[in-house]
């Protein structure tokens, strides 16, 4: 599976309709009449999933959600096209699916996509600490990280390009009129986050430090919070969903980003950040899977685990900074009822709190 080059699939079906985010049912039925023509409209049931803080997600089915053929309809959040490359997202969907690591994508429409429902349940935050579960997650990430780019193409890490783009958007949103922002509380909120100049200097400092950290560039999910992990207890497996940020990136970023997600989303609590012991066990399971999937000798040494642990600590800083910038943007543009301002503050505070400690880590 993994030695093959990661190619995208065929041209994706595009249905030229726009679904109203406030009253989506009619538009979704129109879409399903083309995707599932054998379904009778009166038999179709819809379930809205509330885990997402970027988009709306609606499951459509006849009978049961856990039966094959169910369709997920994702409506893109307001202004998300500013910071999500939708064409790249579709390409990543196709790559993950081609390698047996993700659901099939059925079609795109003007303001969203439809794809296969992955059977199982969204993982609970507390299960992240359970060895039998976190080893499954580590092994699945190892498999994905071993997928090679398209034949002959070199992969560049997405991190700095994406972060620079976020920073530019933060600067332009500061200069925009309040009417262009979601609500006027955003202007008051500007006082609660670091200035653009501070953020800009921090990004340069991060880039300087982390470019000296020898973390390989691999295919990454880049947004592995619990709502993006589906656990199928019956089959004893996990699958990762939602590829809005998936792309080639630093190996240690993807892992460090996942470790940050132990702290949760709605009430960020960094006391839940994984202990050093848990991280080392997680990283051992990850390295075994990564090496196995890449066709290498699977023996994992203590030194290898320590080296990856240090890289992950350092790149977890970049993850906090990245999502801090993202949340500042969301606080200004998103129509979703979520306290993005508080989230940005929590992420950036932890970044500043840990920066000196993590930058100082060495193998000695």
From TrEMBL:
It comes from the Eukaryota. One of its GO terms (cellular component) is cytoplasm. Pathway: Phospholipid metabolism; phosphatidylethanolamine biosynthesis; phosphatidylethanolamine from ethanolamine: step 1/3. One of its GO terms (biological process) is phosphatidylethanolamine biosynthetic process. GO terms for molecular function: ethanolamine kinase activity. Belongs to the choline/ethanolamine kinase family. This is ethanolamine kinase. It comes from Seriola lalandi dorsalis. The lineage of its organism: Eukaryota, Metazoa, Chordata, Craniata, Vertebrata.
């Amino acid at each position: 599976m993994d030695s093959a080059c990661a190619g995208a699939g065929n041209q994706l079906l595009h249905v030229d309709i726009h679904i109203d985010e406030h009253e989506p049912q009619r538009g979704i039925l129109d879409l399903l009449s083309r995707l599932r023509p054998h379904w009778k409209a009166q038999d179709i049931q819809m379930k809205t999933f509330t885990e997402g803080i970027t988009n709306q997600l609606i499951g459509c089915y006849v009978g049961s959600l856990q039966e094959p053929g169910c369709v997920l309809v994702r409506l893109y959040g307001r202004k998300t096209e500013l910071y999500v490359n939708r064409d790249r997202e579709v390409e990543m969907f196709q790559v993950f699916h081609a390698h047996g690591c993700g659901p099939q994508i059925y079609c795109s429409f003007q303001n969203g996509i439809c794809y296969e429902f992955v059977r199982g349940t969204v993982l609970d935050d507390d299960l992240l600490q359970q060895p039998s579960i976190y080893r499954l997650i580590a092994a699945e990430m190892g498999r994905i990280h071993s997928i090679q780019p398209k034949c002959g193409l070199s992969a560049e890490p997405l991190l700095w390009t994406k972060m620079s783009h976020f920073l530019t958007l933060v600067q332009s949103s500061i200069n925009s009129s309040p009417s262009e922002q979601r609500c006027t509380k955003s202007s008051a909120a500007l006082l609660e986050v670091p200035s653009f100049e501070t953020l800009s200097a921090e990004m340069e400092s991060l880039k300087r430090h982390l470019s000296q950290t020898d973390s390989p560039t691999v295919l990454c999910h880049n947004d592995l919070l619990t709502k993006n992990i589906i656990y199928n207890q019956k089959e004893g497996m996990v699958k990762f969903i939602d590829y809005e940020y998936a792309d080639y990136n630093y190996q240690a970023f993807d892992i460090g980003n996942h470790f940050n997600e132990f702290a949760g989303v709605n009430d960020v609590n960094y006391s839940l950040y994984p202990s050093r012991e848990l991280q080392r066990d997680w990283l051992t399971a990850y390295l075994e899977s990564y090496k196995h999937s890449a066709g290498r000798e699977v023996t994992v040494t203590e030194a290898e685990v320590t080296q990856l642990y240090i890289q992950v600590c350092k790149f977890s800083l970049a993850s906090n900074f990245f999502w801090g910038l993202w949340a500042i943007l969301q606080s200004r543009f998103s129509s979703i009822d979520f306290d993005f301002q508080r989230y940005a503050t929590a992420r950036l505070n932890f970044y500043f709190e840990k920066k000196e400690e993590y930058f100082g880590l060495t193998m000695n």
